[in-house]
Amino acid sequence: MLQRQTIQGTLVLEAVRALRCHATADEIYTEVAKTHPNISRATVYRNLNHLAELGEIRKIETPAGPDRFDHLTDRHYHIQCTVCGRVFDVDMDYMEELERKIRDRHGFQITGHRIMFQGVCPQCGASKG
Fold it and tell me: Which terminus of the chain is more solvent-facing, meaning fewer CB atoms within 10 Å of its CB: N or C?
């Protein structure tokens, strides 16, 4: 079923694509509110989740911190800076063969995987120097 995109949904999608930085919902709300100050935080959050469900954006759950939203929807890996918390793309191919190599004794049918690497980003590493 084809779903119609609302004006608010379009604004949120455009903000995610413009930010291009794995932004949090709060960061996306701030971006949208710059030009549309009457939009509510709840509307932005609702649209982010809806867009992720539709596959227009990718929701990234981070182990320590708020969810982030990615304009890239292909399967790829991320790395999170343990100092500033920002999330970056990892330059490597998605390893589908990893799923085929897993031996499961609990009856799971493997449908995918998420791996979040951790490290210190160059900006935070330079500031410690």
Answer: N
